[in-house]
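Reminder to self: keep the SMILES exactly as supplied, no canonicalising. Ligand is zinc ion.
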Amino acid sequence: MTKEMILAIETSCDETAAAVVDEDLHVLSSVVSSQIDLHASFGGVVPEIAGRAHVELLEPVVQEALEQAGRSIRDPGVVAVAVTTGPGLVGSLLVGLSGAKAMAYAWGVPFLSINHLEGHLFAAQLESDSLVFPYVTLLVSGGHTMLIGVHGPGEYRLMGETIDDAAGEAYDKVARYLGLGYPGGPAIDKLAAQGDPTAFRFPRALPGENLDFSFSGVKTSVVRAVDRSPEINVADVAASFQAAVVDVLVAKSMQAVERIDATAIVLGGGVAANSLLRERTTTAALEHGVQCALPSLAMCTDNAAMIGAAGWHRFRVHGGDDFSIGANPSLVLEMERA
Amino acid sequence: MKLLSLETATAAGGAALVIDGVVIGESMTTKDRRHAETLLPSAIELLAQAGITVQELDGIVIDVGPGLYTGLRVGIATARSLAMASGSGLYSLTSLEVLANDERLGTSQTVLSVLDARRGEVFAQYFTVENGQRFPQGEPRVLLPGDLIEEMDTRPQSLVVVGDGGVRYQELFAHLQGVEFAPVPLFPSPATAAMMVERGGVTKQDIPSDVTPIYLRDPDAVANFKVAAPSRLADS
Ligand SMILES: [Zn+2]
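Structure tokens returned for the bound complex:
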């Protein structure tokens, strides 16, 4: 018997994405059209440019996702359409939301309103059938740095978060300062491989039992070190900065795992593509005897398949949403603070 | 023809259902600009009242601007997705031509459509009359109201100004002879757009995803970047 399928759409920031995910959370297609080239010369995402690109790309990307899954926009064979309704850039969210509602209505299937962060929490399930609740997700991106205990669909505990910059934001700012361009994460990661991570001792913020993060101190220290000696070895700075950030991320993740007796540590968000973070998390999980779920690079960064995974949970638990739902740029994920 | 028309180019948005040249219903909201929340529910209600499904429609009609950018994208994404998913045709018109063809205006005078473009500018276009029909003169433009009025000094004929942009800057027109202001419509009406399709002369879009908004302006960042770029080069 053929499996039931959901079409998922994600346009919360600068990726126009669509995916088809089946009831066993297998990804039948996942198309991501990145706008990174459009924004690179501005050193960050420009909301109006993102909105314009989304409206040009939406249906072509959806068509491509349906065709790769063996269907078409006239004969989609899906049981629901899931779409990100927040958080994100309002002008970007509205494009995906408008298209998703219209398609769901025309096809006579429910539409599902999905929180983008919930997508990141379930992304690892798309590639690992063996993941068991509760697990800890370290969500690290340009917008977020959070440690979340995932006890089941809709049952989340916020265990720690950044009190200032997001990790990805710190990467972008340091990269800009070092003249490495945008986006900063991949540039620093690449350069760090050629540097000495012990050359500089940048601060590890908020040690101890507290699982919150702070990255403004390390960023300031980098700026000070470079200002002091303009002839500095940039690769050493990148490697030492990266070591400081990753040390803290991994240490606190493992504390969180112990605290809720989690079965696994899961990475999510754009910074989860960082090679040092992946390597160190793998080693630490092994030492702690827990599973380590590292989604592929495509599933760490923003994509629609993860929205499909969250969509399946919402479809089963809650059913369809009302067509009068709007976008909410500051949508919060309901979490118990622990 | 069974036509569902969607309008989101201005603060006043909504939907209309027109069947064989008869306006079955038009539902507009001017309270706010929450088009993404109200547009599809309004369309669904109109179709339900008439007892027809989206698959039975011959066409979806959409205003592609110029207008307010976020609203345009909501309307166009909705219209394109509805058309592609249901297989109905897609027809696109500009906000300024819909405004000029509103039947409350009559067809005796030249029309100047003016919509408020925010940031102190207006979207504007002239339409002349021939055999009771309106024809656009030139392309839609974005410009300062003062510049629009300056060029009107050399335009002796009488004309009627229509749209919220004209009303907003009405005082600037005070010294001109032969200029009249239409009290209605202030905004393009989706029923008017559908009637224009019904009368013919609006081509069906073969590739719905090619239908995109008319912006007439670069995004702010691009405009600033173009200004900033030469000095950056000079620095290096
Ligand atoms: Zn994300």
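Points to follow up:
Chain A touches chain B at residues 41-42, 46, 48-49, 51-52, 54-56, 58-60, 62-63, 73-74, 76, 90-91, 94-103, 105-107, 323-327 (CB under 8 Å).
Chain A is about 40% helix and 20% strand.
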